[in-house]
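#struct-pred

JT: dropping the chains for the assembly here, can someone run the whole complex?
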Amino acid sequence: MASVYFWGVLVTRDLSYSYRAGGAGFSFPDLSVGGGEGALLLGPSGSGKSTWLHLLAGILTPTGGRVTLDGTDYESLARGDLDRFRGRHIGLVLQRAYFVEALNVVENLSLARKLAGLPPDRDFIQSVLDGLAIGQYGNRKPGELSVGEQQRVTIARALVNRPKLILADEPTSALDDANAGRVSRLLRERAAELGAALVVVTHDGRLRPDFSRIVEIEPANVQNQ
Amino acid sequence: MSLLSLALRNLLYRPWTTALSLILAALGAGLISLILLLSWQLEQQFDRNLAGIDLVVGAKGSPLQLMMSSMYHISSPTGNVPLSGVKPFLNPKHPYIELAVPLSLGDSYRGRRIVGTRASFLEVYGAELASGELWTAPMDVVAGATAARELDLQVGDTFQSSHGLIEDDDLTHRDAPAFTVTGILAPTGTVADLILLTPTESLWAVHDTHDHEAAEGEEDHDHDHEHAAYDVSAPLTIYDDESITSILLKFKGTSVVGLNMQRSINENTEMQAVTPSVQLTELYSTVGQGEDVLRQLGYVVVVVSILSIFIGLYSSLDRRRGELALLRTLGAGPGKLFGLLLMEGTITAVAGAILGLLASHLGLWLVARYFARTYRYDFQSLVFLPGEAYLLLGALIVGIVAAFIPALRASRTDVHRTLSR
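RK: done, full complex below.
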């Protein structure tokens, strides 16, 4: 059994989820993504992509199966512990760029570290921002930035805790080809640098050439149980 | 970036909503604290000046007015009583009376009241000389601490009094003998600080001069000579045809004697006797009704401020749902979101209450200045009462009550649904 899990930082088995007990639900293919590796989960809207991502992030609790990250089974964590575990080890790039509007860019990133129980480390935060070419926006409110810049701030926030897993939900769907390519490259490069597993969930076929591991999600995943 | 500073930043990020809630909380707390302070100050002032006086005897008229003029030196005296009528009370050998203080009122110097009396006055209020010495002749004056400071009087200074209790140049006794300051009292915290004390005979001397001048106009010298002959330490019982304004009495032993004496004075003489503690109780209950109305108004404002904090937080939830979900993904558990919103509510309420307390003390300071000018009374605006600490505790509870439901809703943010929208 153990050998099955051996290769992956992120490993899932028999993962399924249904919104109502006993109702129609999703079941997801098994996944094993190693450190520094990337995986693209590709599928149309309504195929359960976000649900899958939220299961991987520990935001949703699966109806069946299990998720382990670097050997830690989500099931073994109490609710509050899972929140802290997610904050510490998983970097999320969300579909919409959410921020704490009252705080500037650097403070948003420090808050992410604070909530994960890490010290602020201004220098590291600045270097992450510089690496994404948004170093000059540290003192600006996120609301004052362009959509593309906001996107990069959310990527910076996903990196700032040196996570073991980076999960990105439709990171490129709102961007033109050039920017989509740049974001995809940034995510892969930074994940590789940190040795983190990268999982991108999208319906954006343009990302296909960037990933060697591609899992197609079909609407047929929806099952009647 | 702690939860507390995050809460603060969130409040500052929507300044108008926060300002409205702050102002309402400040208004509620300020109103209640002002009432607390005013009634405390009033009772302090009145109670401190009771000075153990059991009975005030003076001319017939309003009992409240007699007490106010004779004990607090507010309002006008009720009139004079002939010395012949009150002589028994002034007899040092009276079996029931421990102390009697004769008062002659009606003159003033630059708004400060001049009170003709005997040394027993100092005994009643526990006053001691800070400098100079007690009077030895008519026209000698011992000034209360506050009065001396505000009138800038030193030992050896002289001044002319005016008739009546208001500052009016036309009423100055220009031709009367001048008063000379012989001593200044140490502060007592009582009404003794606020007035100018002189032997009873001084006032007779001032007014004698007038009368005689009107009649003959050239006997000043003789009168001055005559004044020096007064023995200002002897009991007033040596005079027959003069009059005074009132007498403050302290009894030996039980109050039964006092009650009997009061009844007998009121029924059998042309004078009235008033029990200060009874008058004060009546006064408080009258003032208390106004206080109750104001206090209820304060409670209404507090309820409105609870609503304002509640609505401010609740309506911000819709806009902040994404933000709250984000905080959950970043590792903040439901408890932290609950705490964040609760903090935003309580910070608003407590900060508002602190503002309100500051405002009420500022208000009291202004009122105190008015009182000091109009009634020559000192109010302390910097005293903080234990009741005000309870007010802050109350504000904390107000904040918790107002923020509880929004905080509960925030803690139940459905992260998956919010982020999937």
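JT: nice. The radius of gyration of chain A is 17 Å. The domain at 2-223 of chain A is CATH 3.40.50.300 (Rossmann fold).
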